[in-house]
Amino acid sequence: MTGTRGIVWDYVVLLAGSLLLSVAYALFLVPANISNGGVSGLAVVLHYLFGLPTGLLVFAFNVPLLIIGYVFLGGLRFTVRTLVSVAVFSLTVDPLGRITKPVTHDAFLATLYGGVISGIAVGLVFGRGASTGGTTIVSRLLKNVTGLSAGIAQLSVDAVVVGFTGLVFGPQLALYSLISLFVSGKAIDWTLEGFSGERVALIVSPQAVIISTRVTHELGRGVTILQGRGGYTGAERPVVMCVLDRAQEPMLRALVQTVDPAAFLVVTAATTVLGEGFEPLAANGGRQKSFLERLRGNG
């Protein structure tokens, strides 16, 4: 999706993510005094202490951080998109809190649902080349410098804010805030990278032919035999590679153990699997992206 249509879609998703973030705070986090880190979490604490509007605090704190984002991150494009996200959140979070009631008065449920919804929201905004402002700008700088995942970078930066939360609200709500941070960090990564049920298995064994035959017939999965070489011995070693469903992993382990108990087996999660037996490639050689992937901004 390119050109004007792509830009329009970017802003549609950007607005949806920003509104979803307002929902997470207005319906779950602010009523329960849960600080989900960042400038928004800091605003929750100051709202509790002084009664100032959460949205106004968020917007005021974000001005200097947006300048930093303009200089070090995406230039004008990043800054404009982030400003749109911050403005939408700032203008909607307080009115939404006034016209709605908290979904739950249970702090733990507010922590979980607020964390998941806010993480998905931030992930959607990140996927459109923007930020929700605040320490997400700092976390993007940290991600670029250190190579950390988006979720872990966000978690590291926001942990500082949670420490301040503990001083104001006490240790119990600070612990809830840490849970919310962890959950939202995982939700950010899932939104950006996806959650695949497929696994990639690499099996190093002299019985590669037997293993590949049994995988094909018993698990119904295609296999590829690669030619490997031992790094220490220099000996040729056949490597069986196959992609299978997560539920088939225990069956694969049992099969390999039966054929060759001394085999070397590595199983890892696959982010994207395309081709025969899985999601098809587009006829023109490109990939037909799903609705969720278009939301994420992949490809």
Q: Quick summary of this structure?
A:
The chain is an alpha+beta fold and 299 residues long.
The radius of gyration over CA amounts to 24 Å
Q: Report, as a whole number of angstroms, the end-to-end distance.
A: 9 Å
> Residue-averaged pLDDT, rounded?
83
Total number of strands: 4
The parts where pLDDT drops under 50 for at least 5 residues are: none
* Main β sheet profile: 4 strands, antiparallel
Number of discrete domains: 2
The global form is: elongated
Q: What would you call the structural class?
A: alpha+beta
Question: Roughly what percent helix?
Answer: 55-70%
- Order of helix and strand elements from N to C terminus: HHHHHHHHEHEEHEH
Number of helices: 11
How would you describe what is shown here?
This protein is an alpha+beta fold. It has two domains: 3-193, no CATH class; 198-270, 2-Layer Sandwich (Alpha-Beta Plaits), CATH 3.30.70.120. The chain has eleven helices and four strands; from the N terminus they run H-H-H-H-H-H-H-H-E-H-E-E-H-E-H. The protein has a four-stranded antiparallel β-sheet, covered by helices on one side. A hairpin with a 6-residue loop joins strand 2 (223-229) and strand 3. Helix 2 (38-50) packs parallel to helix 7. The protein is elongated. The termini are close together. The mean pLDDT is 83.
Keywords:
elongated; 4 strands; alpha+beta; Alpha-Beta Plaits
Layout: helices, strands, pairs:
Layout: H1 3-29, H2 38-50, H3 54-72, H4 75-99, H5 107-127, H6 135-146, H7 150-169, H8 171-193, E1 198-204, H9 208-219, E2 223-229, E3 236-245, H10 249-259, E4 264-269, H11 291-296
Antiparallel strand pairs: 1-3, 1-4, 2-3
Helix pairs in contact: 1-4, 1-5, 2-3, 2-7, 3-4, 3-6, 5-8, 6-7, 7-8, 9-10
